[in-house]
């Protein structure tokens, strides 16, 4: 038996990334997540807990997308099994709440711990595009609150 998740197991893990409760069940309690990107795109950053990662990215992105339209597809997994490190290439497709299409390509470099949980993740994606979707949604929400008198 391999000491770390196999390619098939890693593919299964990442196919659940659109369901935070499922995906986060595969993440170690003490996670180290890096999302490279320009500082003015506040989705990029370095997160030391699943809660910080969830609040900074998942919650804000999920709020901008129509949940029933989200589809995640894992294209390939390299590594895993005997190696604690793996690379995961995937895509997600969805419709933003404002009707715009959301198409994102990801490459995740992940390190698994001895419990087969993700302990480190470096996530590469188009932070500018995702930032734009989130900003559009959050600014429209703030305008709606002002119109409602809230």
Characteristic key phrases:
single chain, alpha+beta, six-stranded mixed sheet, 4 helices
Explain how this protein is built.
The protein is α+β, with helices and mostly antiparallel strands. Helices cover 33% and strands 34% of the residues. The chain is built from four helices and six strands, in the order ααββαββββα. The protein has helices spanning 7-14, 20-24, 50-64, 127-148; strands at residues 27-35, 45-47, 71-79, 85-95, 101-112, 118-124. The chain has a six-stranded mixed sheet with strand order 2-1-6-5-4-3. Helix 3 packs across helix 4. It is elongated. 21% of the residues are buried.
Helix content: 25-40%
Rg for CA atoms: 16 Å
Q: Order of strands across the widest beta sheet?
A: 2-1-6-5-4-3
Roughly what fraction of the amino acids lie in strands? 25-35%
Number of helices: 4
Name the average pLDDT.
86
Structural class: alpha+beta
**SSE ordering:** HHEEHEEEEH
How many strand segments? 6
Spatial gap, N to C terminus = 57 Å
What's the shape?
elongated
Question: Which residues form runs of ≥5 with pLDDT under 50?
Answer: none
Largest sheet: 6 strands, mixed
